[in-house]
Amino acid sequence: MRIINRLAPLFGLAVAWSVTALLLAATSVTAHDERQPLKMPSDLDVRVLARVNGTFITGEDFHAAFDSIPVESQLPARANPRVFLRTLIRRELLYQAAVRAGLDKDPAIIRKLDRLKREFLTTEMANRERQKATTEITDEAIRGYYDANPQLFASPERASASHILLKASEEAETILARLKDGADFAGLAREHSQDARTRELGGRIFRIVRGQMTPEFERAVFGLRTGEISGVVEDKDGYHIILLHEHVAASVIPFEAAREKLRPRVAFERGQERLKALLADLERQGTVELFDEALEGIK
User: Fold this and answer.
1) Domain count, the chain
2) Distance between CA atoms of residues 202 and 188, nearest Å
3) In terms of domains, do 130 and 62 share one?
4) Is 234 helix (H, G, I), strand (E, B) or coil?
5) Distance between CA 134 and CA 270 in Å, rounded?
6) Of 52, 112, 282, 288, whose CB has the highest number of CB atoms within 10 Å?
7) Are 125 and 214 members of one domain?
8) How far is Cα 219 from Cα 248, in angstroms, rounded to an integer?
9) How far is CA 254 from the centre of its chain?
10) pLDDT digits over 239-298, tens only?
11) The CATH number of the domain where 167 resides is what?
12) Residue 119 falls within a domain, yes or no?
């Protein structure tokens, strides 16, 4: 086989993308994919990049194949487009071999292709219906979502503290006296605390919000000043001595700060609503028959 335009040296290179990966590449992009468009000359789609037994591989073929591969594979494709083109050549060679072997006439393959066609068209129809929602997203719609979901933008009052849990009040008073004399809080927690979850951390509890701890513990924590050590606090777990590291008041993310981050979320939810409405209309307009008895024996 002869390769034109100096592609021959590429035959010795390891190809980073398999033909199978290209053939099975996802046909849709989720809301969280961060795809970057291919940087290319304006006339790439009409360029002829290779000819395989008389069949041209164009820039449009290259562009479409690039768009179909996973995000993580796009970087090596950008770094070495010739190797990526080599993959397209191999794919074309395999396709031509399959046609010569009559695989396109095989009834089983025809059925598989029909299923793939149905899956592709179904996905494309759903994606296009969702995409219509993006043109409908106004600042008013985003503001409505923001106002309707205040819990998403509220940051609750929280604290960070360390504690030493003891089972006897006398021992707690003794430890508290040592702390007042300048003993290291974390060291005493590691040595004496009965809280196995925090003992090796020097008693540290990194995040405390209201409703998480006992009422007695929370009253003490949120009543301390930063750097202050409590007295002995009794609750159902025993006797605590608490050191407050940080107290952060409750806050709300303002609309202006949240607006642009909300736009894709609102578009996604509106898209899902459009798709749901479309399916409901199709079900009302269509004739659907369910044969429950045919499902018997399926587990």
Assistant:
1) 3
2) 8
3) no
4) strand
5) 8
6) 52
7) no
8) 15
9) 24
10) 999 999 999 999 999 999 999 889 999 999 999 999 999 999 999 999 989 999 998 998
11) 3.10.50.40
12) yes
Query: Do 8 and 83 contact (CB within 8 A), yes or no?
Result: no
Tell me, yes or no, whether 94 lies in a domain.
Answer: yes
- For the record, the structure tokens of 267 come out as 């578009």
Among 65, 3, 66, 6, CA closest to 36: 66
Is there a single domain that holds both residue 185 and residue 243?
Answer: yes
pTM over 0.85: no
- CA neighbor of 74 nearest in space, from 21, 30, 116, 32: 21
Residue 149 in any domain: the answer is yes
196 in any annotated domain: yes
Residues, the chain: 299
Classify burial at 203, counting beta carbons within 10 Å of its beta carbon; exposed 0-12, middle 13-18, buried 19 or more. Answer: buried
- Contact between 156 and 210 (Cβ < 8 Å): yes
Domain of 92? 8-105
Which residues partner with 238 through β-bridges? 235
CA gyration radius, the chain: 32
β-bridge partners, 154 = 252
Q: Which residue reads 């008041």 in tokens?
A: 249
Which positions ≥6 away from 263 have C-beta within 8 Å? 137, 142
Tell me: do 120 and 189 sit in the same domain: no
